[in-house]
Amino acid sequence: MRFWEWRSMMAGELALAALAILLASLLGLVLSHFLPLLLNPKAPRGSFGWPLLGETLRFLTPHASNTLGGFLEDHCSRYGRVFKSHLFCTPTVVSCDPDLNHFILQNEERLFQCSYPRPIHGILGKSSMLVVLGEDHKRLRNLALALVTSTRLKPSYLSDIEKIALHVVGSWRHHQPAAGAKEDGGGGGGVRVVAFCEEARKFAFSVIVKQVLGLSPEEPVTARILEDFLAFMKGLISFPLYIPGTPYAKAVQARERISSTVKGIIEERRSAGPCKKGDFLDVLLSSSNELSDEEKVSFVLDSLLGGYETTSLLISMVVYFLGQSAEDLDLVKMEHDSIRSNKGKEECLTSEDYKKMEYTQHVINEALRCGNIVKFVHRKALKDVRYKEYLIPSGWKVLPVFSAVHLNPLLHGSAQHFQPRRWEGSSQGTSKCFTPFGGGPRLCPGSELAKVEAAFFIHHLVLNYRWRIDGDDIPMAYPYVEFQRGLPIEIEPICPES
Q1: Which residues bind heme per the record (predicted)?
Q2: HSE value, Cβ hemisphere, 13 Å, CA-based, for 449
Q3: What's the distance, Cα to Cα, between the start and end of the chain in Å?
């Protein structure tokens, strides 16, 4: 046989082998995708979509956060409020049912387990309270609860919130007036346009950095942490592709820099001896026998994450919904006028003042219900679980969808409408029909701090400014919620500075 004939024959055989391998791989992919359907015929009704991708892209399609979105509307109408799908590369049961959601959250580590996608672990770190399991999570959460309980109504904490709120709100008077706006000659009048989401983030970050690390906004290290933290946040909601220059890769690198900065602060504190600042870090350092240095760094990062994103989004949601309801805004303003009328001009707000902000709390609850800052959480079944008529197979992902419960008209009348009065005399704040911060052993430990900070910020906002939404900007779920244009608002001082 001539060489060229032999080479041609070998090339043909290699091509056939490659084709066979490709076909076998495709067949394996199809079988692995659809095999769970065949092995678990008693799982809830639903569909798995295409191999590999499943229905993930449809599930994550952006939509207004005060709506269910096309995917959930379609699947709930076709299969009911509990259905199966194939999401995040794994067979999944999606629950839009309040009773099943409550059952899932209350049976953490017994029947279900936290199961966030691997790329999130890569950014948060293996010691993050958001991803650790079992006793490690319980230990970290107990520490977080102790910190929150000792901080929530502490006078120094409330004073810090108010000072930062006054600084942020007061800075708007020095913004350039909007085009065509008239000044009143007093130096503080005229309409200004403020990118409110950015301002809310500035406020929330300043508060949490002060409480966790004892840093003031003007310190250089604060600006450095914020710059890295913004890169970290962008990567957290990006496509998990670790290639230099991608948001995901930048986020991993940003976390390493933040970790290095926090470790440096820890070493400085240890070298300084018994001098105490009264912040979270002091408590962490006093618990040296309980936590490793890596756990302390992760705890700091978790605290920054929780105190930054959730709080700033909550404040933005309140401003967005109040900007569309003049009646509710008037009621909030009357409440804060009444509180302020009983205080001296420079007198600080107290825990007793916070307790008087009843209608403000109704507004906050309703903004959480309508805005759905946390749409769903990730869980995994540890064994075959039977609940009512449903079977959840062992190893399947389970997604309790909170927004579907919050927007269910059978549970909340006129569910699509912002109606804070629905909370008057209500105990829904702790019910299975209202879970804006999750539930069970993983209920967000800082939820009350977020509400306090939002209420204090709103106090100074409504007493100092009138505002309206500039243009058409709505909260969108990607699935993480954000305002596409940063929620620009037109503000006008109520009383010009003298």
Answers
A1: 444
A2: 30
A3: 102
Q: What residues contact residue 258 under an 8 Å CB cut-off, 6+ apart?
A: 225, 228, 229, 232, 301
In sign, the C-alpha dihedral spanning 287, 292, 298, 301 is positive
How does the average pLDDT of the chain come out, rounded?
A: 85
Q: What is the mean pLDDT of residues 403-425?
A: 93
Contact status, residue 336 vs residue 360, Cβ threshold 8 Å: yes
User: From the CA atom positions of the chain, what is the Rg in Å?
Assistant: 26
Cα 426 from chain centre: 25
- What are 36-95's pLDDT values in tens digits? 666 777 889 999 888 778 898 899 899 999 999 999 999 999 999 999 999 988 899 999
* Length in residues, the chain: 498
- In this structure, are strands 112-114 and 90-95 parallel, antiparallel, or unpaired? unpaired
CB 116 within 8 A of CB 130: yes
Cα(268)–Cα(285) distance, rounded to whole angstroms? 11
Q: Which amino acid appears at position 357 of this protein?
A: M
Q: Say what the pTM is.
A: 0.89
Alpha-carbon separation of residue 402 from 369, 411, 459 (angstroms) = 9, 12, 29
3-state per-residue secondary structure call for 138-157: HHHHHHHHHHHHHHCCCHHH
pLDDT of 140 reads 86
Residues 279/286, Cβ–Cβ less than 8 Å: no
Q: Please, which residues have CB within 8 angstroms of residue 124's CB and are 6 or more apart in sequence? A: 130, 131, 236, 255, 298, 301, 302
Q: Which residues on adjacent β-strands are paired with residue 465?
A: 493
Secondary structure class of 475 (helix, strand, coil)? strand
Question: What pLDDT score was predicted for residue 185?
Answer: 47
CB-based burial label for 64 (10 Å; 0-12, 13-18, 19+): middle
- Report cis status (omega within 30 of 0) of the bond before 496: no
Instruction: Convert the pLDDT of each residue in 314-368 to its tens digit.
Output: 999 999 999 999 999 999 999 999 999 988 878 899 999 999 999 999 999 999 9
Torsion of CA 208, 213, 218, 223, to 10 degrees: -80
Question: Could you tell me which residues are beta bridge partners of residue 489?
Answer: 194, 469
Per-residue pLDDT reduced to its tens digit, 200-248: 999 999 999 998 888 888 888 888 888 888 888 777 766 666 777 788 8
Residue 114 assigned ligand-binding role: no
